[in-house]
Amino acid sequence: MTDTRPTTPAGTPGPDHRARHAAGPAVAVLRGGTGEHVEAVIATLLEAGVRAIELTTNTPRWREGTAWAAQQHGAAVSVGVGTVLEPGQVDEAADLGATFAVSPHLDPAIGARAHERGLGWYPGAATPTEIVHAWRLGARAVKVFPAAQLGGPAFLRQVLAPLDFVDVVPTGGIGVDDAADYLDAGAVAVGLGSPLVGDALTTGDLVALRSRAERLVAGLAR
């Protein structure tokens, strides 16, 4: 059988991507707030059907929230750490029980450490060159960022026409009601921050959060 995986410049097969994104079509990105409501926000999202949670390193109590989610919910949640800017943060994420690491940029050193620690790696990329490079380095999926500002679903559809072997998770500026359009354009999942989370991390408004999350899950299931 012919190997259809992308090749490196030297002509050798690229990384084997049998371990692919399997945490559902939505990744909730938790950023900011006071830290007081982190656990309640995670619990509400899980109850509404969102199974992948990303806590960024510039969120108060991200360490406590990551550990709590991993310990309390186990296999029911795929918990990751976002805004990972250096390999040492990958070690922290792994030690806390996270299963994936997300960066806004592409840094091979972070990817190498994620592979060493057994975490899925989701690096940020904005151009076809960056997307292919990230995939060849072994990204579980490439975080196309900032997705809306790059051109939204239309941009994604154009990029994936020649790059249909790459799994992508567009993130940035995606709303609850247009998230499904990105799946239709070829994404394996979508990442949503403030349009989904709103001010729940600051005010603790879980009623509105649940409503948005349930609407998101229903829309992605269409």
UniProtKB/TrEMBL annotation:
Q: Name one Pfam family in it.
A: Aldolase
- The segment annotated Disordered runs over 1-23
Give the UniProt keywords, A-Z.
Carbohydrate metabolism, Lyase
Bias regions of kind Low complexity — which residues? Answer: 1-14
* Coiled-coil regions, chain positions: none
Lyase: is it a keyword of this entry? yes
Pathway in which this enzyme or protein is active: Carbohydrate acid metabolism
> Organism's domain of life?
Bacteria
Q: How does it assemble?
A: Homotrimer.
Q: Give the family per the record.
A: Belongs to the KHG/KDPG aldolase family.
Q: What is this protein called?
A: Bifunctional 4-hydroxy-2-oxoglutarate aldolase/2-dehydro-3-deoxy-phosphogluconate aldolase
Naturally occurring in which organism (per UniProt): Curtobacterium citri
